[in-house]
UniProtKB/TrEMBL annotation:
Keyword Zinc-finger in record: yes
Domain RING-type: 38-98
Pfam families recorded: WD40, zf-RING_UBOX
Keyword annotations of the record: Metal-binding, Repeat, WD repeat, Zinc, Zinc-finger
Transmembrane segments: none
Name of the protein in question: E3 ubiquitin-protein ligase TRAF7-like
Stretches the record annotates as Disordered: 301-325
One GO MF term attached to the UniProt entry: zinc ion binding
Top-level taxon: Eukaryota
SMART domains: RING (SM00184), WD40 (SM00320)
InterPro entries linked to this entry: WD40/YVTN_repeat-like_dom_sf, WD40_repeat_CS, WD40_repeat_dom_sf, WD40_rpt, WDR86-like, Znf-RING_euk, Znf_RING, Znf_RING/FYVE/PHD
Ranges for the WD repeats: 341-371, 548-591
Naturally occurring in which organism (per UniProt): Oopsacas minuta
Biased composition (Basic and acidic residues): 310-320
Amino acid sequence: MIIRTSKNYSISSSDSVIRSEHSQPTLFVLPPQEILRCPICRSLLSDAVISTRCGHTFCFKCVCLTPRNSVNYTSAHQSTSLVPTLPLSTTGLCPLDQILFQSADLIPNRAIREQVSSLLIHCCHGVKLSDTLSEASDTNKYVVDDEGCSEQIELGNREQHESECLYAHVTCSNSSQCGLYRKKDMDVHLKSCAYTMCCYSPFGCNFVGCLSAVESHESVCVNRSESGVACVKELTDIKLRQNDLSCRVDELTGAVKNLQNSFCSQLEQQSRQLICLSVRVDAIETQLGRFLYGNISDRRNSSEPVLDQEDNKKSGDHTNDTTSKNGEWLMPFTLKCVGTFQGHKGNITSLVCSPGYLISGATDGQIKLWNATDPTRGCYKTTEAHGTSISTLAVEGGTLFSSGRDLSLCAWQLPGMELICRKEAAHSEEVSAMVNVGAILVTAVSDSLKMWQLEAGELVEVKTIPDLPHKVRALTYAKKRESLYSGAHNTIHVWQAQHRFPLRNKIESMGFSSIYSLATTAQFLVVGTYNQNIQVLDIGTYQHYRTLTGHIGTVTCLLTTPHDHGQFVFSGSQDTTVQLWNLENMLPVQSFQRHETPVTGLALHNDWFFSASEEKEIKVFKRVKS
């Protein structure tokens, strides 16, 4: 079956079955079914539309050309739109049963269009005109060309294949006088093409010949010297432009850095102002409460005694409402996010607190001291510590210890951040955990523990515990029990916190998976695990007490409230959330969803709680009465 396709029209561009800028011979592998022919033009349906009035399917252009629509068809084609359509008010007449319909009754017949689109045809570069005349007309018909492309393709996908077909005829790039060649044969032709030009033709050479002759000529071409001078000049111009561009890039880079620094400082200033406003709001709320309680007291004075001590307590500060005389946290309370510390240019890796200060380390190599007594004052000090990422931080008294990806260990004097000493190559790998056990600093590296002591301004290694079963990821110290706890895969080692650190106990085979964080209270050993759960053990018997579930990611950090009883524990996770748990009833108290990346650090200073994540920010929370 032979048809010749031409430029098609469609109601919607996405519904077009055939889209070709030029006529191409179409030879079907199998003759199309009769149902795929238009009853008007008897050709293959092109952009088939069906009338909802009569149910017949036609080519869109054939319906446009019916006598009732010829005027509208002409006006549609005179429009600048590439997709001719009929006005909604236009009426048409079905040429088969003379039923009237409007253009709104014509809808694309997608079933027919898909059938037409899936018809198999021979590639147009694999057919040729036959020497015999067609039986139906005096014109020649097309047959398969044995020397052409043998691909059989779907009608709807013909353009993609035919545009890339290696059997397509193309003209020689040297001269149109060579005639047409198939793409696959062009490389062979170019080697013998008699119209190959000399490479110095832009400089005035008119030599033309086959490739071998041109190559011989180019070695003695008189235009070589001129081209060389031109090339040197062009190269000089390129270098000058390159220098100009380099200077411009440097200027733009400097401007970007200045803008970035300005933005960071403004952002930090705005964060301080936001924290200040939040504190003021809390103060106003407190004053309002006192005012209300005072009015009640005044009213009571007329007929009752003044408020007793319990009533006075109700009108006091929020902090006093939630903290007992011995520092224990009391319910009810809530933690309110009042602001954000911003300033690091890398992911924050560690958070610790010392009296009056919050200390943070990040992958930008900086250690920052923040005012933890009055967070509105923001950053107090910034120190370039290791020249590379900060791994862990630990603080004891007025001394801060830091480890970095450069494998060094540093000691700093607080709050001025004066460097006391630096121990280069202190470890063979990056430190995964670090904790102070009195005057001893304990670091975890891979499957080993190292103990350090600051003596005469130098960090001295006093002991190494090597060859533990697995990598140690977590450390914590229980001062009253004089015990150091180290967590690895499904194993917790309990070490006696003395100079030699003998092994006191070993907790294993509990199915905890890898242990990523540890914390202790007077009653419990709290374990954060890879499998998203928090395991609670009796710290005296090491028996499993309870499993806390709520996170959907690895529990990366744990923090207990400072009182000896330790009623509450904070947990941070890779699921970007922080949760507060009550260890008396083993229930969650509050959940915080202020981060968008995994939580990396938690810290507590009086009524201020801080959490950090990989998004370079520290969230600031204040404990207030519920």
